[in-house]
Amino acid sequence: MKRKPIRETKPHKPVPLDSLVAASAQALGLTLDPSWQAGVKFNLQLILRHAALVDEFPLPDDAEPAAVFHA
Which of the listed residues 2, 5, 24, 54 has the most CB atoms within 10 Å of its CB? Predict the structure, then answer.
């Protein structure tokens, strides 16, 4: 059986995180203390970095999720 070629990933564009943090807080109706802005931005950057690692991991097109077993 011949495998399909794995798709190549493109580099992600940087996201203006300060604007994203402010807009997300506003959309959720949260009051964001300005002293928390740096911490929220740091954690968002960390989450996005981890997501990029997962996204870059090549999987063949015929890959399927693992079965879930309950005890």
Answer: 24
